[in-house]
Design goal:
By secondary structure, chain A is mostly helical. Helix content of chain A is 70%, strand content 0%. Chain A is elongated and about 85 Å long. Chain B has one domain: 2-Layer Sandwich (Alpha-Beta Plaits).
Chain lengths: 426, 141
């Protein structure tokens, strides 16, 4: 293998193993920032030695053993340091454990148990609610996704320095707050898990909604969110909402190729060429949704959204869409996760299932909703319903209003075209 | 990007012989690793070609030929489909694949990259003829 090929091979191994290596170190040193440092040092050692010695047969095990030794060395140093302090008469009661002679050995043995558990702790720590959403996203991509700071920066169209600072600050926050490196207990779990799922879906959407981004890192975000979602499913196979989210992402990802036309313009769901939807991802999504429902999670917000996506996935042609079922799902979603955006979507579904008049009723009730005041989707939907009712002048005005509100150039194009399509002003 | 790891057939797989328990265990644990890493999309073993058939297209005619087929080494016995971030990552996973017929037994694992149909490509003008895959070039690595 050439030197460069070896480097790339090491990089690939690192991508596969880094989260586990960091998690393993964090279990020992109880500090995510320090753990990442130790993991980086381990990578540096691998980069020095593997090109000379060749890749080990089991590179994962090599990295785990190497990071463990580093972590234990670090703990021994700290213990020694603590003992010196004690000799100086410092109050070291708090560090009692550090002076038990076999402390480090006992810890090493205790750490032999489940690596999956360590990884899950790392996921929960990276998504800790103590951190801002931006920080959680960056830290998760860094620690779990194994993305470099530069890659994250490119994906979010943010300067690398900003991302680097965000990650450093996040690690410091966790360290200073002495956030325990653990899987939250039962009472805390739902809220903490919600935070994890929120981060994953945010990453996914950042990539998915960015039809305008021309940097290839943005699509990578979708793939990475999906991969991390699948990892979390493996770690928590009985959490229905994790399955629900993964089902939702699999089904949405199945439409990637159909979502834009040859010129890169967005294509609406109803107009997409369904033969270009990826049947493998649809099948995976439907299977995950089925498992979520079998676990009794059919009413979870993500499972409901996945069920909505599944309604579209199951319809071979747009005309075969089961709109009554979609209305029922939106009704359920409006109960467990009410929001004005859900209401607009419900209005669209009602309009399709029971006629534009019924849909318009819901939309008009939302007119005063402050959260939607600058949201182009409302006039756009209203315009569509009005056009179907033959109220063309009003429809055109709504499309024009929507076009003026959107910041996405391609969407504006689409809305302006719709305004033209309903006829010129009198 | 997606890769398919293809296990080539052997006289044993063509005879429909069940693999040894130790090999089944190794395969199961390998595939569990793939799933835990979030890269496994699909995997399955294929029954012997004796249970399959071929359709030959010749001179505008279709002819059905029942299995088994003679050229064992050209046949496939199973596949594992993964989605990874780089060719090197696929290589690393392939390197970890257990010896498909058990340690010490000759076998071949072939790895092929799929045409990217849903690999989250950025706004690439998708080719309508993609399904025939006649002229579709491999997407960016």
């Amino acid at each position: 293998m050439s030197r460069e090929a070896t480097h790339r091979a090491i990089e690939a191994v690192w991508r596969i193993e880094s989260a586990k290596v960091i998690a393993h170190a964090a279990r020992l040193v109880r500090d995510v920032g320090l753990a990442e440092e130790l993991a980086q040092d381990t990578l540096v050692t691998a980069l020095e030695r593997w090109p000379v010695d060749g890749l080990p047969d089991n590179p994962g095990a090599w990295l785990m053993a190497a990071v463990k030794n580093r972590a234990l060395d670090r703990l021994r140093q700290d213990a020694l340091h603590a003992r010196k302090h004690e000799e100086l008469g410092a109050d070291m009661d708090a560090l009692q454990s550090h002076v038990v002679p076999d402390f480090v050995d006992a810890l090493a043995e205790a750490s032999e148990d489940d690596i999956g558990d360590d990884l899950l702790r790392l996921v929960f720590t990276a998504c800790h609610p103590l951190l801002s959403t931006d920080a959680r996203v960056a830290l998760t991509l860094r620690l779990i996704g194994g993305l470099t700071t530069d890659e994250i920066a490119r994906a979010f169209l943010t300067p690398e320095k900003t991302i680097a600072q965000r990650i450093v600050r996040a690690k410091r926050t966790l360290s200073e707050a002495r956030v325990p490196f653990e899987v939250p207990r039962a009472a805390e779990l739902p809220a903490r898990l919600a935070s994890v799922l929120e981060v994953l879906y945010l990453v996914f959407n950042e990539g998915y909604s960015a039809t305008a981004g021309d940097d290839w890192m943005r699509p990578t975000l979708c793939a990475e969110a999906l991969r991390m979602g699948r990892v979390v499913v493996g770690l928590m196979p009985n959490e229905s909402e994790v399955l629900g989210l993964v089902a939702l992402m699999e089904i949405q990802a199945s439409r990637t190729q159909a979502r834009t036309d040859a010129a890169g313009r967005p294509v609406l769901l109803m107009d997409q060429d369904r033969s270009r939807w990826d049947p493998l991802l649809i099948r995976r999504g439907l299977a995950a949704l089925e498992r979520a429902e079998a676990l009794g999670g059919a009413r979870g917000p993500y499972a409901l959204q996945a069920a909505l996506a599944a309604c579209h996935a199951r319809a071979r042609r747009a005309e075969e869409t089961d709109w009554a079922q979609i209305v029922a799902l939106y009704d359920a979603l409006a109960v467990v996760a009410p929001s004005p955006v859900v209401e607009i979507n419900r209005a669209v579904a009602v309009g399709m299932a029971f006629g534009p008049e019924a849909g318009l009723e819901i939309v008009d009730a939302l007119a005063a909703e402050p959260a939607l005041a600058s949201y182009h989707w409302l006039p756009s939907v209203r315009g569509d319903l009005l056009a179907k009712l033959g109220r063309l002048d009003e429809a055109r005005a709504e499309f024009e209003r929507a076009a003026a509100m959107t910041r996405n150039a391609r969407e504006r194009e689409l809305l302006t075209a719709r305004a033209h399509a309903v006829g010129a002003p009198p | 990007m997606r890769f398919m790891m293809i296990v080539r057939a052997t006289p044993d797989t063509e005879a429909g012989a069940m693999p040894e328990a130790s090999l089944i265990a190794a395969m199961t644990s390998y595939h569990e690793e793939l799933a835990k890493a979030g890269v496994l999309l699909d995997a399955t073993g294929l029954q012997p070609s004796a249970k399959g058939w071929r359709i030959h297209y010749r001179n505008g005619q279709r002819h059905i030929v029942d299995g088994p087929f003679a050229e064992t080494k050209e046949l496939i016995a199973g596949y594992t489909l993964i989605q990874v971030r780089s060719r090197e990552e696929a290589m690393e996973w392939a390197r970890r694949f257990p010896a498909p017929m058990g340690e010490g037994t000759d076998a071949i694992l072939e790895v092929r990259q799929l045409y990217e149909s849903c690999d989250f490509e950025p706004d690439q003008p998708a080719e309508r003829s993609r399904k025939t895959q006649a002229s579709h070039t491999s997407a960016r690595a």
